[in-house]
What does this fold into?
Amino acid sequence: MQIEIHSGRIEEAQADAVMVNVFQDPGALGGATGAIDRALKGLIHQAIEEGDFKGKVGETAVFYTQGALAAPRVIVVGIGTQAEFGLDAVRRAAAAGAKRAQDMGVRHVATVTQGAGAGLLDPTSAAQAVVEGTLLATYRFDDYKSGARPKSALDKLTLVEIDNLKMEAERKGAYIGQAIAEGAKLARDLVNQPPNYLTPAKFAEAAMAVAADRPGLTVKVLEKVQMAELGMGALLGVAQGSSEPPKFIILEHGPTDEPPVVIVGKGITFDTGGISIKPAMRMELMKGDMAGAAAVLGAMQVASDLNLPLHVVGLIAATENMPSGNAIKPADVLKAMNGKTIEIISTDAEGRLVLADALSYAQTLTPPPQAMVDLATLTGAIFVALGRSAAGLFSNNDRVAEQLFQAGEETGERVWRLPLFPEYREVIDSDVADMRNSAATQPAPAGAGVGAIFIQEFVGNFPWAHLDVASMTYHTASHPLGPKGATGYGVRLLTQFLRHWQPLEEKD
Ligand code: BES
Ligand code: MN
Ligand code: ZN
It folds into this structure.
């Protein structure tokens, strides 16, 4: 989508539709909305008076201008109450308006930068939110639809700013918003791809393609032999049931002589459960079991596009989890890269196995990490605990946890901290190995916490956080910021976290 900033008045904008907003609280229509309303001889005012338009976030109304404006249509979006107003309202309002425009076949929308005027938000963040909302809401995945005519798309957005002093800030915000939305789109595309297309090898190719366009971003792909040399017995154990070779993908951005912040993604390109096979019902959703890895790749792309002044390493452990004559089975014992042994109870608890090696590997980087964050569609239990409202956050470090929480609040990609109670560890005591990979019987209490405490065995004393994103990355119904399918969850969260990262020693 082409995105432009124009100096001028919204009532004079040349576009297929102009977009303005209305608060839910009663009051006179001011600013741009007031100007448009006057040009339309009070049509917007009347719609509110009649009770047809309330100004709730997500609400839209369309008016035709009959020559009163240069544009043939006005899209009015609700932005909620003054009390609840913030960037999330702006993002959702822009999303609703853009979606409405795209559904009508409108190609070019001119909008005010919602919130930067009477809303009193800083113009950079407001422009960023408008652009993010617009791009996320109009996302579509139709790579595999043959024959169907491509539906017309909203392909141009103009931010019209009357105050010249805000133009530069909005231009910057629009650039940031576009980079972040592109990262989220990349993550969505990867998750939406069918698993016979998006194999571990194709995931590695996707990572190489991202790096190829970006000189500051490097990528290295470890093959099976190299993983074996490193002793990645847990990752290789998961991979051995599949005829698709696993790939361990290492992305790097920023000053390589500084301790990196390492982000790690679970990249199971399809999770059948392995020998502990999953029920057939809804198994197709397991193509999304690489959503943590997709978020990591998306965030690495954004880190590069925004030139973040921070050393960031992205690690992706990519493999299928398949049943076969070569597959691992319950009672097998695997040895992870850090030397710890794991008795397999369920081959379906495979995410923690691949993360064990990825997090062990992270600690061998030079210089060593200043913090590690993993994202994984790890457990069904996290959906029981938190629903679709937030990802589960587990951490051994309060300041890392706090920074992730803040990033979640600011982006609307929320996280909620859950405990790592020491007694969870007893659940994975093994008679034959250092630990087992799941509780002996399922379902077991605190399944997400038990998964997290397993992963903690592989982080040493490094500051670390684990995000169980299983309930956030794929929606079977459309939502305010996009259609059903992949959400791209984690890209905006990680980007915000990295942009505002506070080194741990320097604070306290
Ligand atoms: N990939 C699944 C978790 C999952 C479930 C993600 C639903 C998205 C939606 C994971 O590998 C898994 O199978 N977890 C098991 C763990 C159990 C065997 C300890 C689960 O949650 O049942
Ligand atoms: Mn599984
Ligand atoms: Zn899985």
